[in-house]
Please model this.
Amino acid sequence: MPLKQELYETLRRSPLKVSAIADKMGAGESHLYKSTTPDSGVNFPLEWLIPLMNITKDYRVLEYINSLCGFAAYKIPTGGLKKGLVSVAELQKLLGELQTRLYYFYDHLNDAEKQAIDVQPIIKLIKDAIKALAAQKANVEKYAYGQTDLFDDGGGE
Model:
C-alpha cells in the first residue's frame, strides 16, 4: 500500500470528521482531504504528519513508514509502572511460542513452503513480543532511574 493510501486510510478510519481533524490541525479541510487522497497530485505536508496521528490516535502511518525502512516502532507505556505490561509468565509463554514458530519456519520448511504459508501469525507474534519487551524495558528503567530522560534510553544502545 502506498504511503498516500495509508494517510487516506488514517482519515477514513477516524471517528472524527475530516472537517474536525482539519480544524484541530489548523489546516483547510479541502487541502487535508486532497493531500491524503491517492492520485490527487496534491502533496501531504510533512509537518502535518504528527498532528494527524495525534488527533486521530492512529499511528499506523508511523508503523508503515518504519516497516518500509526496516525499522519497528512501538509505543512505550507511560503513567503507571504496570500499564501495558504482561506478566513475566505471559512474556515467557509469548517468547516460547515465538521461538517454536521461528524454529519451525527456519528449520522445517523449504523455500517453497516458506513462500506458500501465511506468515502473518508469525509477524504478529514478533510484534507482540517486541511490544511486551519494550513495555518491560520502560518499566525496569522507571524502577531503576525514576523518570527516564527523553534522549537517553539508559542502556547506551
Notes: Confidence is low (pLDDT under 50) at residues 148-157.
